[in-house]
Write a structure and sequence with these properties.
The chain has 2 domains: 14-263, Rossmann fold (3-Layer(aba) Sandwich); 280-646, no CATH class. The chain is mostly helical. The longest helix is centred in the last third of the chain and has 63 residues, at 486-548. The protein is built from 23 helices and 8 strands. It has an 8-stranded mixed sheet, sandwiched between helices. Strand 2, helix 3 (71-81) and strand 3 form a beta-alpha-beta unit. The chain has helices at 24-28, 30-55, 71-81, 94-101, 107-114, 122-135, 147-159, 164-187, 207-216, 238-242, 252-263, 276-280, 293-301, 327-336, 343-388, 399-422, 425-440, 442-447, 465-475, 486-548, 556-585, 587-613, 621-646; strands at residues 13-18, 62-64, 85-90, 139-143, 191-195, 221-224, 232-235, 482-484.
Length: 655
Amino acid sequence: MTSAPLPPLPRLSLAITGHRATNRAFAANRDAVAAAIERSFARLEALAQTQAASLGGIAQTRLHSLLACGTDLLAAEAAARRQWEIVAPLPFGRQLNLAINALPADRADAEALLAGAAPADSAVLARAEAIAGWYGQARLFELAEQDPVIAPLFLAQLADPADAALAQSCTAAISDRAALAGRVMIEQSDILIAVWDGIAHDLAGGTGHTIAAALEQGTPVIWIDPARAAEWRLLTTPELLHARRFALPATDEQLVAVVSAALRPGEGGALKRGAEALRLEAWHSHSHPLGTGYRRIEALFGGQDRPLRPLRQRYEPPEEIGTGSAAPILALAGDLARPDPAFAPGLERETLQRFAWADGISARLSDSYRSGMIANFLLSALAVAVGIAYQPLYLDGDKWLFALGEFLLLGSIVAITWIGRRRHWHKRWFETRRVAEYFRHAPILQLLGVARPPGRWPRGAETSWPEYYARHGLRALGLPRVTIDDAYLRRGLDGLLRLHVLPQLAYHRAKALRLTTVHHRLDHLSNGLFLLAVASVSTWLILSLLAATGLAPADLPKHTAKLFTFLGVLCPTLGASIAGIRYFGDFERFAAISDVTAEKLEAISQRISVLLAAEGLTIGYAQAADLAHAVDRVVVDEIENWQAVFSGKNIAIPV
């Protein structure tokens, strides 16, 4: 029996940035900084735990850190004492990261570290051992694709420290990598804790720069000044970074609000149960036989083959998706994340099964809602036709039968509308479709370590539980334990192109053509029915004129009056119903949305193809991440445009 995946457990995800051990302010106040980090962790954890009962439990807090000597390692120690999960997006592969962050003064020590040997300088060795000790405790996401370029540059700079240009190039390259790893860390976190002296924020990869990047992404920052470590300040906008004197000490109420925003799902929703409503939905293996009205309109008027073909759909159960439609994605995940054998099974459990459940539920709700409205429009026209059909049939004595038929048809409209509103078909469809679309494109983004920062998630007009559900569901796995190199990025981008971009591109192109055809054909049909009404009335008037002039039998208008009256009423009524279906379906606007989406996906596919076709070019992680983010933006833009079209179209009586 198919059962719903459990809702994801909310998780508080933190990030840490701060000065290195060599920074004066940090060195002079190291113990105070350590105490401040400990207190901030304790307070945030306590606030998270106060939410646990009402949320049905929360997952273990996760700390993201670049594991540089200084603030990062102090935070790692505090997190380990609390048994938090520690995830480290490293700017380089582990050996180069070790060599750079151990701060060797000469090339020999750097070469020793790169080779896995002990350096001669005891201070360098101590720093290296401190960092390496965390490699076994943290999950490492190593951005190593530029190591073959940066390692020689780093060694050359150490061999010739007097070369200012070489030193500048090396510093810039290392800073850019630190900024890139910081970006990954921010995207995965709800709150950034920063130990910063407040002096500079324009050095790429530096603490101030990381704070600025977080604020730009909408991530709140708890700022700890080493000189006043007991006093925390909360930064929530980029402007506060430039006007820091207005950043007042953080109050407990502010911290409560920040933690609540990270953990609490949007309340309410169609059934007033938030994410729990998705789990309580009833699963159906197939679409309802009476729920194909909307898709039948597309089949009849969309220019497709076999317009009368069966339209009943089978929904892929969550337990089958791993061996079904998602098998290629899981095979790619298993191959790429081979160092992390739990990642591919987790991807199936946490992402793909939730997608399958939400997609199946949403598809059936879509059929119910949209086909209900199609039925209402058609039944309203049929009710009028039945109500006056006794006239051309000359069954005036049996008019009550036709009135009864009209009453039953009108009652059906009322019943469909009442059931649709009571069961919230419209809102439930909106909410579950948002969930499904967020999960649909996520697996390859997760393999690339790409996520939408919490501050950049869209918000629904009435509820945001779908966004919280998706955010925590996609975050459950965290970053994979992998080493990112050129081959990894090429396979990841190829998978993104083949398994998401190209199929979605083909889907939207076909959809745009189909819906445009539906719109025009419905338009022609409604116009044709109106012209038939005009022709019907005109014909009877002409017959009356001919009868009056003796060119036709005198009683012909009388004998045909009821027939032409029936046609004169039926044709415009049917035309109005067809026009109503066209208006409700908004086929033209949906075609335009798909057209725009297809154009965006086409541009992305060309960018990916150019990168994959370039021989001898090392693909940078930043390029791959930007393309993945571009795909994510396309998905979110489409969701928002789709909501803008259908948000106000609740199921209603067509009057």
